[in-house]
Specification:
Blueprint lengths: L8 H6 L2 H20 L5 E2 L5 E2 L4 H21 L2 H23 L5 H23 L10
Keywords: Membrane, Transmembrane, Transmembrane helix
């Protein structure tokens, strides 16, 4: 019988916080590139321009990050999870910005993405960790 036999998956993750941290950062960055790789500006018949991202891309990214936050919050805790998810997601944004922006304003955008992601991840993490939402019955 192996040392992890009979243990729940979250217990195995809790035993490896460094692995969870790296996974959160990498998967959050991949979330940025995966959902926002396609940029398209659309001009309506009235001449209004929208883009570069559409609602389904944003919704997909938010839902993906929410899953990462819920799993991370149950293994690392809410504040650490929010921090690492924000670092990864904003890092993805910053890398893309550094490659395409000549003005340097991508740094401001990166900071805003980091703060927004952190606050959103805190909210999702705390909601997921409310009493009655634990994995005790899993």
């Amino acid at each position: 019988m192996t040392p992890t036999a009979g243990r729940r998956p979250l217990d195995a993750l809790r035993a490896r916080p460094n692995l969870v941290t790296v996974a959160l950062v990498v998967m959050s960055a991949i979330t940025w590139f995966g959902w926002f790789a396609r940029e398209e500006y659309v001009t309506s018949p009235e001449g209004n321009v929208s883009g570069p991202y559409v609602a389904w891309q944003v919704l997909g990214a938010v839902l993906t990050l929410a899953v990462l936050v819920v799993v991370g919050a149950r293994t690392l805790g809410v504040p650490l999870t929010a921090t690492w998810v924000a670092v990864g997601f904003a890092g993805g944004f910053g890398v893309k910005g550094a490659m395409t922006d000549d003005t340097g304003l991508y740094l401001v955008g990166t900071l805003l993405v980091a703060v927004g992601t952190f606050v959103g991840a805190l909210a999702v993490g705390w909601l997921a960790s409310l009493p009655g939402r634990d994995d005790a019955h899993a």
